[in-house]
TrEMBL record:
Residues 56-131 form the DNA polymerase delta/zeta catalytic subunit N-terminal domain. Pfam families: POL3_N, REV3_N. SUPFAM superfamilies: Ribonuclease H-like (SSF53098). This is DNA polymerase zeta catalytic subunit. Residues 1-55 form the DNA polymerase zeta catalytic subunit N-terminal domain. One of its GO terms (molecular function) is DNA-directed DNA polymerase activity. PANTHER family: DNA POLYMERASE ZETA CATALYTIC SUBUNIT. It comes from the Eukaryota. It catalyses: DNA(n) + a 2'-deoxyribonucleoside 5'-triphosphate = DNA(n+1) + diphosphate. It comes from Ranatra chinensis.
Length: 205
């Protein structure tokens, strides 16, 4: 087992690596052009500096599913609408921002609810597009209706911490990893590792 004390965390966008990232979106029927990779900097339990590159984690938000139409048609309409609106705002016209949308169930966080209800979980490629997507949904720019997103206020890194029960200055424990490089700096070795977290996204290809 590899253990690294979490000191600093960030992410970067990069073309997907075959075997570590998803390279094709079956939902969109298109190849994936870029994915976020989380970097965890810290100290191993043996005292070495280290950096872990975490593949296979995508940012997401939830929206209530309260349509009468078929879920599949609604999912594609939302994905297309978000892509189009974000691209028009950015001056692009052919870029995909939504990786996929899946139908899930859960108990709403706001208010009192005794029963579960259905939600759409929207995965994005770039965490930076979340804020714009929230504005579009809340301002009725998608599907011509105001939509209240859930868990949309949580930053990407914090979302990763919550989902995998991680804390700053605590250890992240790995049972599987791939060594990436070994550098020598300031009289100490700096170890670099790669891990992949697939959760419920898709298997790497």
């Amino acid at each position: 087992m590899l253990s690294l004390r979490i000191v600093n965390v960030d992410y970067y966008l990069t073309p997907p690596l075959r075997g570590l990232d998803v390279t094709y979106s079956h939902f969109r029927g298109a190849p994936v052009k870029q994915v976020p990779v989380i970097r965890v900097f810290g100290i191993t339990d043996s005292g070495f500096k280290g950096c872990i590159h975490v593949h296979g984690v995508l940012p997401y938000i939830y929206i209530p599913f309260d349509w009468k139409e078929n879920p599949d048609s609604v999912m594609y309409e939302i994905a297309y609408g978000l892509d189009k609106a974000i691209n028009e705002n950015a001056g692009n016209y052919d870029k995909q921002h939504v990786f996929k949308i899946v139908l899930v169930t859960g108990v709403p966080f706001y208010g009192y609810h005794s029963k579960e209800r259905q939600f759409l979980k929207i995965y994005f490629y770039n965490p930076a597009t979340i804020k714009k997507s929230i504005q579009l949904l809340q301002n009725a720019k998608i599907c011509n209706k105001k939509i209240q997103p859930y868990e949309a206020h949580i930053p990407f890194i914090l979302q990763f911490f919550i989902d995998y029960n991680l804390y700053g200055m605590n250890f992240i424990h790995l049972t599987e990893w791939v060594p990436r490089s070994l550098n020598y700096e300031d009289g100490k070795y700096i170890h670099c590792y790669i891990i992949w977290v697939l959760s419920d996204i898709e298997d790497p290809q």
